[in-house]
Amino acid sequence: MPPRLTVRRQVSSLTADMTLQRKKKKTWGRGLLLCCLLLWVSGGGVSGVNLRRFVGCAVREFTFLAKKPGCKAMHVTTDACWGRCETWEKPVVDRPYVQSHQTVCTYNESKLITVKLQCQSDVDPSYTYPEALTCHCGVCVTRTTECLTFV
């Protein structure tokens, strides 16, 4: 009986068991082993989500330019909310002749982060911004979010 090579790895609470026989198509076995290695290194696989068709709201890494008068701008990478939420309008008989339902991808939970910018001596170098912990599709709250509204 030919020797066997068994590869075992825990991936997303599923155990991938693969047994390869060395004498059967070495290229196929090596390719499969390489795929398993890549899957393991990538942390569980490639996401099957098509971002162009994704509807929902999620935390996603985002880089922006932190600016403040009297300070040098600084690139900051943080977690922010990103997504597409359900929005629709339909005609109605009475004014305003449209019934609408509009939600935006917004912060559900966040924490404030403060960084120090390079500033002139008379300017406070502190720059504070929110970092998303969780996000959801909800009504745009003008107290915390810049909302575009047309009346």
From TrEMBL:
Q: Which UniProt keywords apply?
A: Disulfide bond, Glycoprotein, Hormone, Secreted, Signal
GO cellular component terms? cytoplasm; extracellular space
The lineage's top-level taxon is Eukaryota
Which Pfam family, just one, is annotated for this protein? Cys_knot
Q: GO MF annotations for this entry?
A: hormone activity
- The residue stretches assigned to a coiled coil in this entry are none
Q: Where in the cell is it found?
A: Secreted
State whether keyword Glycoprotein applies: yes
- CDD domains associated with the record: GHB_like
Main localization of the protein described in the UniProt heading = secreted
Glycoprotein hormone subunit beta domain ranges (all copies): 56-148
Q: Name one GO biological process term.
A: regulation of thyroid hormone receptor signaling pathway
What family does this belong to? Answer: Belongs to the glycoprotein hormones subunit beta family.
Function according to Swiss-Prot or TrEMBL: Functions as a heterodimeric glycoprotein hormone with GPHA2 able to bind and activate the thyroid-stimulating hormone receptor (TSHR), leading to increased cAMP production. Plays a central role in controlling thyroid cell metabolism.
PANTHER family in the record, alphabetically? GLYCOPROTEIN HORMONE BETA CHAIN, GLYCOPROTEIN HORMONE BETA-5
Its subunit composition reads: Heterodimer with GPHA2; this heterodimer interacts with thyroid-stimulating hormone receptor (TSHR), and hence stimulates cAMP production.
Q: What is this protein called?
A: Glycoprotein hormone beta-5
